[in-house]
Design brief:
The chain contains 6 helices and 2 strands. By secondary structure, the protein is mainly α. The protein has one domain: Arc Repressor Mutant, subunit A.
Length: about 140
């Protein structure tokens, strides 16, 4: 399973921010460095600001900074803020009602995979993405 483009872009932005020596990031700077479309990036930054992960600093040297500790921002928080977790918590076949009493054909096979993915997203903080050896964002 692959994260959506929206979630991927949001996590790339935060991963870049945590791995950079810069403290304040302008939208233009992030667009140039990460090759994310400008409108897309600005919408993501707004969503992440509304959810308290980052904040905007106004002025000539303004830009975005972390609003709270990256130790307290989990991947699931970011995914939920920018697109919602329903694509990762529900039925892989798209059924609204899928449970052990009313399973789809992939329920038994996909359930453990989904649980492992959710555990990873719920327990991995942005701070854990900090690694000076990373070359791709």
């Amino acid at each position: 399973m692959k994260l959506s483009k929206t979630s991927t872009y949001a996590l790339r932005v935060l991963s870049y921010m945590i791995n950079s020596d810069k403290q304040v990031f302008s939208a233009k700077y992030l667009v140039d460095k990460l090759d994310v479309p400008d409108k897309y990036l600005r919408r993501l930054m707004t969503d992440m600001s509304k959810n308290g992960f980052i904040k905007s600093m106004q002025g000539r040297d303004g830009g975005y900074v972390f609003a709270k500790s990256p130790n307290n921002i989990y991947l699931s928080n970011v995914v939920d803020a920018v697109e919602g977790m329903q694509n990762y918590t529900g039925c892989i076949m798209g059924h609204e009602q899928c449970s052990s009493t009313n399973p789809c054909s992939l329920h038994e096979t996909y359930g453990p995979i989904r649980d492992e993915l959710l555990n990873f997203l719920n327990t991995t903080s942005i701070n854990e993405l900090k690694n000076k050896d990373i070359m791709k964002f």
